[in-house]
Amino acid sequence: MFTIEHEFDCTVVTLLDHDTAHLQEDVVITSFDDCVTVEQYDPHTGHVQKVTLSMAQVTELAASLALPEGAYTHDLV
């Protein structure tokens, strides 16, 4: 299950893990004009872990989901 919320300056997608025996914490993906952040609570540290991707990295990540194993340059994606 996931939710999508449109805020003033961003779009927030929350992924909920509810179909597996070993549940993971929710993943919150926030899309801004210039970057995307991915956040997940880490119960081992008690902190939220956050990764920030540039829009170019997001584009390459999306393209990589449909490609076979290998190394690619951005002009081939």
Can you tag this structure with a few keywords?
77 residues; single chain; mainly beta; 5-stranded antiparallel beta sheet; 5 strands; globular
Question: What does it look like?
Answer:
By secondary structure, the protein is mainly beta. Helices cover 13% and strands 40% of the residues. It has one helix at residues 55-64; strands at residues 2-6, 11-15, 27-31, 35-42, 47-54. The protein has a 5-stranded antiparallel beta sheet. Strand 3 and strand 4 form a beta hairpin. It is globular and about 40 Å long.
Task: Tell me the layout of helices and strands.
Elements: E1 2-6, E2 11-15, E3 27-31, E4 35-42, E5 47-54, H1 55-64
Antiparallel strand pairs: 1-2, 2-3, 3-4, 4-5
The fraction of residues in strands falls at 35-45%
The biggest beta sheet is recorded as: 5 strands, antiparallel
Please state the structural category: mainly beta
Outline = globular
Rounded mean pLDDT is 89
Put simply, the count of helices is 1
**Strand arrangement, largest sheet?**
1-2-3-4-5
In whole angstroms, the N-to-C terminal distance is 29 Å
Following the backbone from N to C, one meets helices and strands in this order, namely EEEEEH
Helix content: 10-25%
Radius of gyration: 15 Å
Q: Characterize the quaternary organization of these chains.
A: single chain
Count of individual beta strands? 5
Q: Which spans have pLDDT < 50 for at least 5 consecutive residues?
A: none
